[in-house]
Amino acid sequence: MKHPLPFHWKPLALVFAALIFLCLPAILSFAGADTLPTSARSDAAVERTLPQLTRDVERAGFEIGAPVYLQINKSEATLSAYLERDDGTYMHFRTWPVCAASGTLGPKQKQGDRQAPEGFYTVAPPQMNPASSYHLSFNLGYPNAYDRARDYTGNYLMVHGNCVSIGCYAMTDAGIDEIWTLIEAAFDGGQSSVPVHIFPFDMTAANLQAYAGNQHAAFWRSLAPAWAHFQNTALVPNVSVADGNYVLSGE
Fold first, then answer.
1. Can you list the positions of beta strands (E) in the chain?
2. Rounded to whole angstroms, what are the CA distances from 65 to 59, 62, 159, 173?
3. Buried/exposed code over 55-92 (b: 16+ C-beta within 10 A; e: otherwise)
4. Which of 117, 134, 146, 235 has the greatest count of CB atoms below 10 A from its CB?
């Protein structure tokens, strides 16, 4: 037989239930706003990956825990990691194949279009998902301010493992293990967020001319200054959104 709560406990129970409901997103994220969420799976991946990755990073002239910058090239189906050097510039460390990505060249515009995003995104610790249905993943943060200004829709656009995709960038499990470990080390080293810049192709003058008649040509031209900035300076471009458009600081 169920015994109802005493009358004087009912208000407290309701308050407690409300607090649980309000705090549920934070509970499910495994951590606070500035803390990297972890799980037994992510811990095992880091433990398995870190020793060799540390040797590779040091052999390449970097330190494990250095700030990370990620670039995705959609046409080449690659994700590249650049690490910061002592002088503040970033140099290439490793490139992994994107083993699955749905859609075609062009930005994601609406929920269900199966497009993978293009543009400038930032990954902070709460966007890391150590309990993903696709091994490990991180949320790109789509829609960003540029996307929202155009009423683009969609959510949970990820980089993840398991090599299957409907609008995400899918890596092999071994690949996402290395990327996750690099990012976790960078967060532990003090990096607050990781920029992830996604381009349809190398933004050369020749490529932009070749796609000049494409419906997305104007959008791609708006991405080109940031790509060129990094190519010319080895410094991560500082991209913001003003009046609904991408703006490169210093340009």
1. 68-73, 78-84, 90-97, 100-101, 119-123, 128-129, 137-139, 158-160, 169-170, 194-199, 239-242, 245-248
2. 14, 9, 20, 21
3. eebeeeebebbbbbbbbbbbeeeebebbbbeeeeebee
4. 117
Asked if residue 198 lies in contact with residue 119, where contact means CB atoms within 8 angstroms, the answer is yes
Q: ω into residue 143 within 30 of 0, thus cis?
A: yes
Report the distance separating Cα 128 and Cα 29, nearest Å: 9
- Active-site residue list: 160, 168
Asked whether the beta carbons of 84 and 66 are under 8 A apart, the reply is: yes
Find the largest Cα–Cα distance for the chain.
78
- Tens of pLDDT, residue by residue over 124-169, are 999 999 999 999 999 999 999 999 999 999 999 999 999 988 889 9
Contact 158, 129 (CB under 8 A): yes
Q: What is the DSSP letter of 77?
A: T
Rounded to whole angstroms, the Cα distance separating 108 from 85 reads 33
Which tokens sit at 54? Answer: 């540390």
Nearest to 95 by CA among 165, 164, 171: 171
This prediction's pTM:
0.86
Tell me if 183 sits within 8 A of 192, measured CB to CB: no
Residue 238 has pLDDT above 50, yes or no: yes
> Is 142:153 a contact under the CB 8 Å cutoff?
no
* Residues linked to residue 73 through DSSP beta bridges, in sequence order: 78, 199
